[in-house]
Amino acid sequence: SPEYVELEEAVLQAGQSDLRASGRIDNLPALFSSSKTLRGKMKFRSNYLYVDEWMEPSDAPAPAPAAAEAPAESTAIPAFDFELDAACSKFVYDSYTLENVVCRGEGSLDALQLRELSFDMGKSDFSFTGAFRQIDEYLFDDGVLSGDLALRSHFLDLNPFMETEEGASSGTSAEESYEPIEVPRNLHLRILADINKLLYTDIELKDLQAVLLVEDGQAILEKCNTNTLGGSVALTGLYDTSVEGDPVFNFKYDLSGMDFQKAYTTFNSFQALAPVAKYVHGKFNSSLIMEGSLGPDMMPKYNVLSADGFLETIQGKVEGLPALSAIDQSLGVPLLSGMELKDTRNWFEIRNGRVEVKPFDYTWQDIAMNISGSHGIASGEMDYYIKADVPREKLGSFLNAAADKGVAALQEQAGKLGLNLKQAETIKLGISLKGAWDKPRVGIKLLGTDGEQSVADAAKEELSDIAAEEKQKLQSKAEEKVNEAKEQAKEELNKAAAQAEEAAKEELNKGVEQAKEKAGEVVGEQAGELGKKAEEALGEQGQKAKEEIEKQLENFNPFKKKKNKKKGGN
């Protein structure tokens, strides 16, 4: 029997498919023996390959059952080891249509070493190098296809891989909802990706480099770096569809130099988690860990979402935020509208559908503030509190405003507390913000006042000043009476002097009493010092929360549950 055959060109037409082959095949006895291997070099060319019609029975009448049930050996694919050079203009498998397909490498029934596998799918282009293993088990025995691949693409659109829900066609393309991407359970692939531009829904990622492991229904992102929305993103984590029900995720995000407005208009999740970003113009950094499940629209289910992290504003300006405008309107003083932000770091956590912002300090135009609170993700209802130390000069002439003005209301509160706002260095306010972001409800309460001196020093200085002033007045008055007495008769001199002495004593006693009253006012004005210990306690709580979140960010591990199990077995 011949040992080899040389093909100048063999032409095959099978259904809608066409195939042209040329090359050399060695060791032909392998066609009849499972112990031998066909070897050779083959070149394939095709204009159109419809793989489905080869893998499923056709609609044509079937042969007699006896003939159809021939022994497996007669139809089995023999072992082979070939160098492959294949190209196909159009390749159709299931719902996927590939064009300009090129495949070059060395292949056998169970392995394929790729020098090049490239094709176009829609507007996307793919170019792979690497290796596949267990191909025969994957194709014919529901086995697992394994491999190591490097993907290079100029443009990759992921949207065609995301199935739209039935009935979504009635809306516009922007309104289409997607079903979650199912990660195949029969793949075990390690993929290195280098993509110039990637499109996911309407999010455009540039210069993406990633290491992705696909196995057992999970996509494990070992690392991913990309640029989007004017900044950069570093991402690691897990996307899991291996169990029934909603897919779950556990990711760590590090965002740098992102644009507030672009992020707000692009990410629906950012709108829900940080509604205040709608009113901020500028750049921010953020680091957070986010864990939860995805709904049918590929959006997180906020009622089970858990997250910890911080948001740092590099440079920004708040424009049109209703909450700040409402505060200014309540006070009748333009204090906070148009606030600028620089180098702020806000620590937060998400639990039970609410975003909780840990207490943080910020100073704007000499107004020292401590801000904390929370808001509902689904409801949008906020509950925030601002402790503000406002320098008296910021209120200025507003302290003399009409009785129906906001500052005048503070004057009324001050009177009840025995405080004098006009004498204070700093006015301490407690500001509550509740309700919807676009229709906030504002409450303002006077907490106290501060000065640069302590209570005792301020009282002592005030008393000393008043006593000196009264003493000077009394001395002048006494000298005047003495001069008048000299002009009178000698017999009246002693009487006049006595009267002057008595008057001096009365005036002195009166001055001392006035000094005591004013010293009491100073004490009242300094009473706000008593609230400082409570503020220090709150500051300690905020610091503790910050340290806990920092620890979680540093020790992020999407597989922590698996590792815990391993430790428990020791």
Provide structural commentary:
- With 570 residues, the protein is an alpha+beta fold.
- The chain has a domain at 1-57 and 80-108.
- It is built from 13 helices and 22 strands.
- The chain has helices spanning 52-55, 65-68, 72-75, 135-140, 260-266, 268-273, 322-331, 392-395, 406-417, 455-487, 490-525, 532-554, 560-568; strands at residues 4-14, 17-26, 38-46, 49-50, 80-93, 96-108, 111-121, 124-133, 145-157, 187-200, 203-215, 218-228, 231-240, 248-259, 280-293, 306-318, 340-351, 354-364, 367-376, 382-391, 426-435, 440-450.
- It has a 22-stranded mixed β-sheet that branches.
- Strand 11 (203-215) and strand 12 form a beta hairpin.
- Helix 10 runs antiparallel to helix 11.
- The longest helix is centred in the last third of the chain and has 36 residues, at 490-525.
- The radius of gyration is 41 Å and the shape is rod-shaped.
- The chain starts with a strand and ends with a helix.
Give a brief outline of the structure.
With 570 residues, the protein is of the alpha+beta class.
Q: Which runs of at least 5 residues are low in confidence (pLDDT < 50)?
A: 66-74, 165-175, 452-459, 522-531, 561-570
The whole-number mean of residue pLDDT values reads 80
Instruction: Compute the separation of the termini in Å.
Output: 63 Å
Q: How many separate helices? A: 13
- Note the overall shape: rod-shaped
Question: What's the total count of β strands?
Answer: 22
Q: What portion of residues is helical?
A: 25-40%
User: What is the rounded Rg?
Assistant: 41 Å
Q: What structural class should be given to the helix and strand makeup?
A: alpha+beta
Question: How would you sum up the major sheet?
Answer: 22 strands, mixed
Subunit organisation of the chains: single chain
Strand content: 35-45%
